[in-house]
Design goal:
The complex is a heterodimer of chains A (200) and B (702). With 200 residues, chain A is an alpha/beta fold. Chain A contains seven helices and five strands; from the N terminus they run H-H-H-H-E-H-H-E-E-E-H-E. The chains are: A alpha/beta (200), B alpha/beta (702).
Amino acid sequence: MSVRRLAPVQPASFAFSADNLAWVDKQIAKYPEGRQASAVIPMLWKAQEQEGWISEPCIRWIADRLGMPYIRVYEIVTFYTMFHMAPVGRTHVQVCGTTPCMLRGAGDLIDVCKKRMGPHAKQVTQDGQFSWEEVECLGACVNAPLVQIFSDTYEDLTVESFNALLDAFARGETPKPGPQIARVHSAPEGGATTLTEVES
Amino acid sequence: MTRIIVDGTEVDVPGEFSLLQACEAAGAEIPRFCYHERLSIAGNCRMCLVEVKGAPKPVASCAQQVRDQRPGPNGEPPVIVTNSPTIRKAREGVMEFLLLNHPLDCPICDQGGECDLQDQAMGYGIDEARTREFRRAVTDKNMGPLVNTIMTRCIHCTRCVRFVAEVAGVEEIGASGRGEDMEITTYLEKALTSELSANVIDLCPVGALTSKPYAFNARPWELRKTESIDAMDAVGSNIRIDARGAEVLRVLPRVNDDVNEEWISDKTRFAIDGLGRQRLDRPYIRRDGKLRPATWEEALSLVAEKLKSTAPARIAAIAGDLVSVEPVKALKDLLASFGVASLDCRQDGAKLGGPRPAYLFNTAIAGIDDADAILLVGTNPRREAPIVNARIRKTWLRHPLAIARIGAAADLTYPVTELGETLDVLAKLAAGEGAFFETLKNARRPMLILGQSALARPDGAAILAAAAKLAAATGMIGPEGAEGWCGFNVLHDAAGRVGALDVGFLPGEGGRDVAGILDGAAKGEIDLVWLLGADEIDTSGLGKAFVVYQGSHGDAGAHRADVILPGAAYTEEPGLFVNTEGRVQAANRAVFPPGEARENWRIVRAVSGLAGKPLPYDDLPALRAALVAAVPHFAALDVAPGSPGADGAIWSAVGKAGDIAAIGTPCKIADFYLTNPIARASKTMAECSRLYVAPAMAAAAE
């Protein structure tokens, strides 16, 4: 982790799209009167989904909408590392680097990222397509190593399959999420090894 | 009460006490950084660890209440240990973590010598760092012209964050980031916009937030500390004046729970650099249209000569906002001996006077804590008395409080129901119209706060009468005495006003008020005007009158003067000030007046001798004795008078019934930072005004 600051270049304004605005209004309505500020994290998530990152006008927009002081929203954005405070690539790759993934070869995946996207985390490629960062446990250790792209995880990666995955993203495809080997979710590789007598 | 055993001592404390308070009640000292009596509890510094018998590990004593402690197996009181080796080791561990990233720059730190971290490191610090890693460095943040930041020193106690959010009511400071990267900052490093912002300097337990104007000026042990009273507004904040040599270097608050708790406004704290500028340090006499230096003898005898040679009906005097009671009393006695009736202390023309409760903040500032409904009439307490405003906010935070306002809208840091911009609404409310009348009537402790902006209007007396009528109609005026309740309040903004009213520095039989004096001077009916520190009047209206200006600063009055008698400022002479509650407090001399300037009452006494009518007192005790003889309540210091009771003779004499014009009145104080000659001479206040007030005024003008 490092000190998180607002990006030096900021857009002039922020606005939710009509669909997102309707969604946001629905979220705010979930909370009782006087507790609207509870909707701040869902709103920030939605804004990040729409824009790719959280800009300064976005912080003010959300604070105004929820009746919160700007500094309170700023605190939240800087606290949670999941919120990007500067633009990231269209395909932002979050590589899990926590122990199980590390033991299963996350270091190799990070090397791939460094080679393809640049030596530093959150560095955006020239074409704006890719950026990467190492994150803490993504919660699918049984499928280690894995990466998260958008809200999907791509699991059981090797250097080859990870490269193929990134190539697919570069071509504009959306690869199938989940294990990238012959395996269903976290079921054993190559089929069941226990309870084989049970009819499925 | 709950019984608890602290280090073997049994004490009975209220159940809602924190363990820290219970330990203090038992005489055990608990080190702390984040805990502060007047702020919410954060529990994040962990310095106040104590051992609770039965708990598996040390607990933060600030964050646990006495009533939540488990008794012993046979119902014995809970046992707390504050001085065991375990606790010592735990605190040493906490201290080591705090010092991990704290720079060793005490020799160049302004907090040095009065730093909580420095002091407690003497007790719990180890002599050598065990880590060889790099220390964290944090970029300094901008917090405006008053608060200097050296953020590497910050230990993240969050006192400043809690203060601005809770007491000041402007949520502008926050903690960004997390863990080691946590930083205290304002949003986009904007300047703090509170009138109380500089209190974060006192709250900061380390040298992260220090005073910008005082930066690198002095060490605390070099300073001469004088306990005194502030004169920047009518709250009478208790202050400590720190001076070195002839210069006042800083002002700090003193704790007085009945007045300012432990806060002071930024003007109180930082207007003092005005004490060194624009000073009148020698007498002047106007010759050939220009003010030329003169000796005291020349100046005093000229004034005495004028006094003797002018008819009493053609003499007038106006007392200013910053003067203490003694010179006002002396000047009144002197002019009374000549038969002068045109005296006035109400520079703004407020229609005040009459029985004492009619011009006091009768509820007392501490009484606001008990109020459950407040009506503000023509007042903006945030500008007129920020401490009172903070007290209202505190009450609003603690329990349900209905607040409504008649008059100009402004952000007061708490929600206010607007009843109307025009003050005639008050008359309607007094007649029982409007929903808020019922609110006041049904309230157990209703209050009404009347501001000077309303009273200074031509129909001020009618407003005063209507307010008294409303107070009576809604049961604001309860039984007499300290136990009683009186919800009728006048909020003053001038430190000297209540004292001058108490002395009776008001037009006598056939005398003129301020407007009358100016009018008379313009028409040539007044030949001699004595301005005792009076700068807030329109001096261009003084016509051809011979003007004697007695005061400390070369401001409006001195520019118009024909004779200048240089007097002491509020830090330079002992004097009594009566605050808006009617509380008499004694200010003390911190430094001597500059150059040839003298104590104000002595100047008046000297003139009286030369004029052939010497005043019957030669020293301050004699003057104060004469004062007490004339006005007995000056004998009791630091006491608010309490409720005067529902005496009909008092309340029927308040104001004068009449029509209230259906017009609004802007706040009398357009610029909080420049309300008096001292503040106007201050560079710091000019900077604040430029930063905070000028943009708002420019926006309003568009």
